[in-house]
Amino acid sequence: MTPAAETLLRRAIELAVAARAAGNPPFGSLLAAPDGTVLAEDGNTSLTDNDITAHPELKLARWAAANLDPETAKQTTMYTSTQPCGMCAGALERSGLGRVVYALSGEQLNALKPGGGFQPVAQEGPALYDEAKAAVDGYYT
């Protein structure tokens, strides 16, 4: 990791500390252009906003999708204090961002939580294939 990347990652950690000081979970993220310019940054506000989706990674993925053209997004890096959760990872895939650099892995984070973190929700499926296919068929062509 370059010294410039370490500086950006440390800023993400500072945003996590600020989120925690504001009464939220300790997570922070920023988006950086290829030259290291910070384009946007945010911290977790899930408690103060009463919104379980107010993770900084998700908020910045939305910002990128709304404000960056696809070529710029592809060249943009997210620096984040902790590896994005599944919800945020899905949003990041759809946002078109080029890469993510994180400080703490999801496994390391869960080791710090009593009980090891969130438990998966049971899922069933697939079912009603023909009906579901009819709703989607042709949309992506």
Automatic annotation (TrEMBL):
Signal peptide: none annotated. It comes from the Bacteria. Pfam families: dCMP_cyt_deam_1. CDD domains: nucleoside_deaminase (cd01285). SUPFAM superfamilies: Cytidine deaminase-like. GO terms for molecular function: catalytic activity. Residues 3-129 form the CMP/dCMP-type deaminase domain. This is tRNA(Arg) A34 adenosine deaminase TadA.
